[in-house]
Amino acid sequence: VTDGARSFDEIPRPSKWKFMRAFMPGGEFYNASITEYSTTMRKRHGDIYIMPGLFGRADWVTIFNTKDIEMVFRNEGAWPRRDGLESIVYYRKHVRPDVYGEAQGLAVAQDEKWGQLRSALNPIFMQPRGLSMYYEPLSNINNEFIERIKEIRDPKTMEVPEAFMEEISRLVFESLALVGFDRQMGAIRKNRNNPDALTLFQTSRDIFRLTFSLDFQPSMWKIISTPTYRKMIRVLNESMNVAQKLLRETQEELEKRRLAGETINSNSMLQRMMEIDPKIAVVMSLDILFAGVDATSTLLAAVLLCLAKHPEKQAALRKELLKIMPTKDTLLNEETMKDMPYLRSVIKETQRYYPNGLGTLRTCQNDVVLSGYHVPKGTDVLLASNVLMKDGKYYSHPEEFLPERWLRDPESGKKAQVSPFTFLPFGFGPRMCIGKRLVDLEVETTVAKLIRNFQVEFNRDASRPFKTLFLMEPAINFPFKFTDVRD
Asked: Are 126 and 437 in contact (CB under 8 A)?
């Protein structure tokens, strides 16, 4: 209903020139994050304003009001539309149609094609039973990571090297590659210089940064072939070539084992994707790395930092873990992981305490009224819900790290009421992140293993540990101190 609403043209907005100038050298937001820009604009304009589009990118209506956020989600329909990764779309449709064809992948597909693909993949990614087979191998990967920590930490200070973030990223890459390619790459210890693994490891991280430069900052790549665009094409081709090679080798190895009379487990996520379409398997295996390595690595670092800076919370978590993991090498499985409410509250509070990015994008499927303004169908809207996670209007003591806020009250048995549209780390609705359960499994397993084995400390300044470009990333090094816990 749009009767009585103010016109779209009345929504506050900076001019295109001011917006572009602000991100140039010497500008107000040069080298600033999209979150810093948006938070400043909110202070100037209120809970709705327009981020101008440039060089072919459409305007984005940016919203912070929970009622507006709910309005957009409730009107998104069965096939929500989310634009934003236009450089990836262009590559898959126009540069390498020979590889992708109709298999565009969930990150870039739209409308009915997206709906059909999501329906086919949901049973693989979103049902817990599909992930249960990974508990043991992920535990073993984390055991290897624990040995790596012991190898590289200083024997006197017990601190790991300054570049420890790369070790965390290798752990996450190894874990996600197990799911995406049905193999261990050896990136943690066994085969650290594996050329195929290194290519995928580096390109998955490069793509993330290049996407931000091309699709979220002002860029002329749609008009002329820029150096950043050319680098993006090169990186995407490199990752695609390696992914095809690895999946071909995996299938050839499986066929050899079948011919030799072995019983093959066909329940892996990769094999189930191959049954749908081998092209889909290639796309999804790459997207798991592209979407998962940096974001999950940063979340893990953030969890460790929160626990290191709040030793009383770390002690409470370890108390819970000791009940489930009587020994350091206790294997984790679906049953033991069920009873860890404090572990999950720690991770959830970390996601609130260090919000990952600004929010998510949607294209309005209908005319809607947002903060009293008429927003027509087809408008791109940036739902900046993550900014609200540190807003005292929605969270008591927002600057304190309090995992207990997510637990049931021991007397009443009830949880504190939180507005559902202020906490959306994985999005909302039909197009919420399909990798949520995979990320949960990886982070829960790793944090449980590390805190059961080590007392974690961080003896450096952590007043501004992260920065946000497109998503959150480290702004400092993380030489954590890992001291063995006595059994």
From this structure: yes
